[in-house]
Amino acid sequence: MTTIDIGLIVTGLLLLMVLIGVRVAFAAAMAGVIGLVWVFWSKKGYDPNQFFWALGVAAKTAGQVPHSKVSSQALSLIPTFILIGYLAYYAGLTRAMFEAAKKWVAWLPGGMGVATVFATAGFAAVSGASVATSAVFARIAIPEMLKIGYDKRFAAGVVAAGGTLASLIPPSAILVIYAIIVEQDVGALLLAGFIPGAVSALIYGGLVVLMATVNKDLGPSVSGFTWGERFKALPPALPIFAVVIIIICFIYNPFGGDAWGTPTEGGAIGAFIIFVMALLHGMRWGQFKDALTESAKLAVMIFTIIWGVLIYVRFLGFADLPGAFSDWVTSLDQHPMIILIMILLAYAVLGMFMDAIGMLLLTLPVVFPAVMALNGGMDVTAAESAFGMSGWGCAIWFGIIVVKMAELCLITPPIGLNCFVVAGVRDDISVQDVFRGATPFFVADAITIAVLIAFPSIVLWLPSLLLG
Amino acid sequence: WNVSLWGKRRAFTEHVERLAELVNEKTDGEFTLNLSYGGLSNNRENLDGISIGAFEMAQFCAGYHADKNPSITVLELPFLGVSSLEEEIEVSMAVYNHPATQKDLGRWNATLLMPSPLPQYNFVGVGDAPRTLEDFEGLSVRATGGIGRAMETLGAVPNSMSATEVRQALDSGVVKAVAFAPHAHMSFGTIESGDWWTTNMNPGTVNCPVVANTDALNSLSDAHREALMSSIPESLQHYVDNYNNNTMEKWGPALDERGIERITYTDAELDEFRSAAGSIAQNWVEENKAKGLPAEELLDLVNSTLAN
Amino acid sequence: MAGTASVLTDNSFLSRLDQRLFSIEKILVLIGGLAIFSLMVMAVFSVGGRNFFNRPLSGYVDWIEQIMPLIAFVGIAYTQRVGGHIRMDILIGQLKGRPLWLAEFVGTLAMLILMILLVWGSWAHFQRSFDFSVPMWSRDSSIDIGLPLWPAKLLAPVAFFILSLRLVIQLWGFGRAFATNAAHPVAVPLIEDAATQAQREAEHVSGLEEDSK
Ligand code: NA
Ligand code: NA
């Protein structure tokens, strides 16, 4: 039996364990340890006397991974981004954002829906977590929409879909995770998320206006806010923009001159500013402790999946499965773009059943090298590549597409988490209602993804302008 | 055998690539070295992997973890006066063959096979070039470990950041100068934004040996071991030729293309650097004596090898 | 994908053990949270020191790398107690009564075996970096300012050991639930349907909102 066979069998075992409900992090680690024992034992010809040697080498090889992989400066952005999101609630930024958006765009058809989309996009700029964003806006935006006669499915769908923007628009934990797994520059990926996130928000907004225009019952417009009210609503929301600008300035200084530091520092300074704002807004120790505990729990969950999956990846290194998979994919007699689209469809199906972070972590170690090979390799130039972009560009571009796919899975049945959360907040709205309301947004997402595939420069323009 | 390297194939790994080819040829494919770039271990855990027996051969750098291999960190001291890759090989092998070094690496069940000689680090920087010792006062630099300590004695301010953040730190002015070997200056893009390069400051380099698992080495058949050991000189020769001809060949034109000014220090200035940093070697001896190492003997060995 | 679960309590020995361990886990996870906060404070010192005093925080990266294991590991048992490690519960969520307790027992046992192997492996990793006979007991140090790595490496086996204790309690709980065919067993995380979970998540978030007014 070759190491590739072992790789395939163990990978099958991993999927089986995940399917029957073993916690993802531990299923991956277990598959990795079993695979390592198998590989080492096979080197000794399955000599029974050598089994414990193989077990020991496997346990010790796996035992290095947790410390070695989490001790990383780039990963420190993840807990920082999570904490920023929690502190932002206490700083009162969420409601301020919604109030400002409402006063500026509510006059449009479906205007409150558009306001919700823009407010979630704005909040996304300080929050790294999609589910939390939907939960907050279900609480703030839905009551106001229902009060003025919005269709409840429509209102719920807007909130569920709007929440997904948080992972594309930086700061985004999931983009950092992608960067780490595929070993790309974190700053470049975060920058790359901005414009696609904004494009997504605009497409959502356009869809809302269109639907409300066609069907007048969905959401009436609201007029009557004066310019004075509009401008008065801005200052409370401004801190969000200040923090966004500060984080950007640590990656690249748009005003000319020196940037202020590194992305790692920028994330941490942004969090610190929001912490100070939350204190000024009246946050006390009990609430701060809550934010710390919840952030730590979420961070541990993510880090455990990271090291668990990396134990499995370490085994894959010994089995050389990613190499074999990308050889297989590139040998297929199909146009690379068709294969890429098949891969994305597979993600869409997987995403119906899996959590976004777990899905990306489990698949990327094998899928990413294959996609890079399809394009022509890590060092390919744009002119010679299959997708018309350099190796570096392809790595960034695929990251944004795949994160957008992962976001889509938050609003697709049967396990669309954002929809469950919205239904959970509102007793009068069923999960089916929310899924029904969110359905038009799949279409919007499909359009967004098609646009990003057709025009990669939407993704690559900003990072190559600023860092290239 | 599985061989754990990291990054991708580059000048720095050419000797291992060559070694694999030679061993394969000499044994008619019976003994193969499977090179893995990062798949088997993290670069800072390669010695751990050797010690466990997870793979049989690996490359690592002494400076990644001084406490794991105090003996070979002597080769990373600043201003030793190494002037060519050949000299770097010679002095490395002298230290590798010292019983204290062999005992030090023996704790990891590792046998030192060969160095991966790198030229001395030098600075690429932005803004006004430091033309005298005083100009280093307050200059923020990216230099880790021993080179960082050496720069501190000159009044420079060492910053720490990972290599991938270096380019951005230089662009953004977080640091004004970065110390790397030429190939790293090219691959991490510091020359894209740099204005000047110090040609002969030579504040030290990193020492990155290739080791084998001792048990695995001992259990090789005589023919296979002979095939391995006899291929080492040729592999090193290939490495040096490749580095001198391909990498360094690109370096000069790369500097010229970008209009990077070469800053060359006079012997008198270099002596000044050396005396300012003189206490570092002494501190190294003190610290490593405490770890039970014949530190003075190792330092003398380095100096006497280089004097010949 | 489950992210939270509820745990019932009563006055039994098992439940008291569960709650005792939980009180330790709560302290540990808070330490993890404070470690996250310390990342921010360090960044302020690093940026401030560099810009205002030309004195950057020496070994900034080394310190971050030391703190990360604290964030990643110490809360691992707490997260298991509250059901925070995600899993796919579409299939297992369909089971009820004894078949469910049996399935949970087997899954927990597998996790426990894994964690015992990882305690062994990560302890060996710690041991290779630790030596009583040398200064700072250090046989492995960080790249820039040479911080000893053994304290950070020690966190992994310690946290994994506490997680193993947690798993033993849960194993006992599921075993007892299976044996007594219990409807509402104590000391084990109970699967909630997605809606209940979402409700809890939403309540938590909106709780944050109200608090801050
Ligand atoms: Na975000
Ligand atoms: Na879904």
Q: What would your notes on this structure say?
A:
Chain C: Part of the tripartite ATP-independent periplasmic (TRAP) transport system. Chain C: The complex comprises the extracytoplasmic solute receptor protein and the two transmembrane proteins. Chain C: Its main location: membrane. The complex is a heterotrimer of chains A (468), B (308) and C (213). With 468 residues, chain A is mainly α. Chain A is globular. The model of chain A has no long low-confidence stretch (mean pLDDT 85). Chain B has 308 residues and is an alpha/beta fold. Chain B is built from 13 helices and eleven strands. The two termini of chain B are 37 Å apart. Chain C is built from six helices and two strands; from the N terminus they run E-H-H-H-H-H-E-H. Chain C has a two-stranded antiparallel ribbon. In chain C, helix 1 runs antiparallel to helix 5 and helix 4 runs antiparallel to helix 5. Chain C is elongated and about 65 Å long. Chains in contact: A-B, A-C, B-C. Chains B and C meet through helix 2 and strand 7 of B and helix 2 and helix 4 of C. One sodium ion binds next to loops of chain A.
Brief synopsis:
Chain A: InterPro entries: DctM (IPR010656), TRAP_DctM (IPR004681). The complex is a heterotrimer of chains A (468), B (308) and C (213). Chain A is mainly alpha-helical.
- Overall average residue pLDDT of chain B: 90
Q: Structural class, judged by helices and strands of chain B?
A: alpha/beta
Strand percentage of chain B lies at 5-15%
Describe the sheet with the most strands of chain A. Answer: none
Shape of chain A: globular
What portion of residues of chain A belong to β-strands? Answer: under 5%
The percentage helix of chain A is over 70%
Oligomerization status of the protein chains: heterotrimer
Bound small-molecule species = sodium ion
- SS content category of chain A: mainly alpha
Helix content of chain B: 40-55%
N-C termini distance of chain A: 46 Å
Q: How many β-strand stretches of chain B?
A: 11
**Spans where pLDDT lies below 50 across 5 or more residues of chain B:** none
Rg of chain B, nearest Å: 20 Å
> How do the SSEs of chain A run, as a string of H and E?
HHHHHHHHHHHHHHHHHHHH
